[in-house]
Amino acid sequence: MNNVKxxxxxxxxxxxxxxxxxxxxxxxxxxxxxxxxxEDTPKTTMFSVLKRVEQVMKEVSLMGLQNRTVEVVPFxxxxxxxxxxxxxxxxxxxxxxxxxxxYEFQMSYMNHKIKPSVETFFIPANExxxxxSSRFVKELARLGGDIENFVSTHIAKDLxxxxxx
Length: 165
Ligand code: COA
Description:
This protein is of the alpha/beta class. It is built from six helices and five strands, in the order E-H-E-H-E-H-E-H-E-H-H. The chain has helices spanning 17-27, 49-63, 79-85, 98-114, 134-142, 153-164, and strands at residues 5-10, 32-38, 69-75, 90-95, 119-124.
């Protein structure tokens, strides 16, 4: 896997411990990771793309990933165009439950169809993050619940600040 550059795309609104687990596991295999933070997303985001990039950078810095190149880059437009611009071919996505499969399968199919040089690899979410989702974390924070099991302290602070402003 020497010199293979891979892309981990997402909305990361916000990054959770589930995403962090996938990032660590990607870095255990690949030397160069680009975390692609989507600007154009069908979801209405709570945090701006710049804030999400900043949050992901902070999360990565807390992971202490040695001998690895990890970049955090915002992108807009088609993901496959971004992949090509970065000189990469491989997308990585985390898979949580069977319910993710259909959406992920369709997305990987569409991406490959648009750009046949782009392939998607899937990493199964670990047992602790199987049920985490950014949406539920936001809902929990909105209702004043404890979210520290699901996100890092800096993200929890951003979420509580958002709901208390
Ligand atoms: N553990 C726990 N939860 C996880 C997880 C893991 N390992 N991996 C993902 N999740 C959760 C996230 O918290 C998020 O939850 P939410 O739906 O409640 O917000 C959800 O799974 C998926 O979010 P994320 O990982 O951020 O990805 P996404 O599905 O929002 O990303 C893009 C989609 C950005 C990759 C896609 O919209 C895209 O490529 N857009 C660009 C435009 C384009 O090319 N479109 C054509 C595609 S065919």
